[in-house]
Design a protein that fits this description.
The chain is α+β, with helices and mostly antiparallel strands and 270 residues long. The protein is built from 4 helices and 17 strands. The longest helix is centred in the first third of the chain and has 12 residues. The radius of gyration is 32 Å and the shape is elongated.
Length: 270
């Protein structure tokens, strides 16, 4: 039987005409013995195609490209919380581990899971330090470096009462950058209730941890105790408010008298 070749770039019509003339090589299939017919059909079914010499190009979001040509292997590698599994010769499954995103935020549910970091009694956040970019809310203010949490540059984060959060500072970039909590971004007053620290940032075992309760202030800031404006704001769904202003439905400020003033006024008015 003559050799017949097609490329992945060929049209379906080229494929059909190339392989539709097997009778000129083998004669009438009906005249062949059963075993011969089977062997011939099997041979035809083993047509081998390949990537053409020009190949194809992969491109990522940063416009970095890579050309895939014959003989190359395309590796699909999973990441933290994402798996990539080849289950058949033509099946690649990419999935989010456990059905959740970034460990404790579920796309199909409202809110956060309680202490969502697997079997731990806390939710762990990996901290690194890198030069600020325009993505940092305090770019151009304070230190030229900023925190990255789980590889996201200085995000706004949210705490839930009852949960414990551990900021892992083992990565070497954390050296000289202890993460602490404050009432304001300028670090006038540090918040220490329920906060524990361990080790030296940049070394194994280093972390800062906070146990959040209903008395944790509803606004905090995570910042470096040694350098200015490296972090960002934390929202806490607690019962403790600070620096809170009230307005009516027209946006006009409402002023509330203190209890002491109200009592004194009532006494004075009889």
């Amino acid at each position: 039987m003559a050799v017949r070749s097609v490329a992945t770039t060929d049209t379906l019509e080229t494929f059909r005409t190339t392989f539709n003339s097997h009778a000129t090589d083998t004669g009438d299939l009906s005249s062949l013995a059963t075993s011969t017919q089977t062997s011939l059909v099997a041979a035809i079914n083993e047509i081998n195609t390949s990537v053409s010499a020009t190949g194809f190009i992969l491109r990522d979001t940063s416009s970095t490209t890579q050309t895939i040509v014959a003989g190359n292997t395309l590796n699909v590698v999973g990441s933290s919380g994402i798996s990539a599994v080849v289950s058949a010769t033509d099946t690649l499954t990419i999935s989010i581990s456990g059905g959740d995103i970034s460990q404790n935020l579920y796309a199909d549910l409202l809110g956060h899971q309680y202490n969502a970091d697997g079997s731990n009694t806390y939710t762990e956040i990996a901290v690194t330090v890198a030069s600020k970019t325009s993505a940092h809310i305090y770019e151009g203010t304070g230190s030229g470096n900023g925190y990255k949490l789980d590889d996201v540059e200085a995000p706004f984060i949210e705490f839930k009462p009852g949960n414990t959060y551990r900021f892992n500072q083992e990565d070497s970039t954390n050296s000289t950058h202890p993460l602490r909590f404050y009432y304001d971004p300028g670090k006038t007053t540090q918040f220490t209730t329920g906060v524990t620290t361990n080790g030296t940032p940049g070394n194994s075992g280093a972390y800062t941890q906070i146990a959040v309760t209903d008395t944790t202030p509803h606004i905090l800031y995570y910042q470096c105790s040694s350098h200015g404006y490296m972090g960002n704001r934390i929202g806490v769904n607690s019962k403790t408010l600070q620096d809170t202003s009230f307005v009516d439905s027209t946006g006009t400020a409402i002023t509330f008298a203190t209890n002491a003033f109200a009592i004194a006024q009532a006494v004075a008015l009889g």
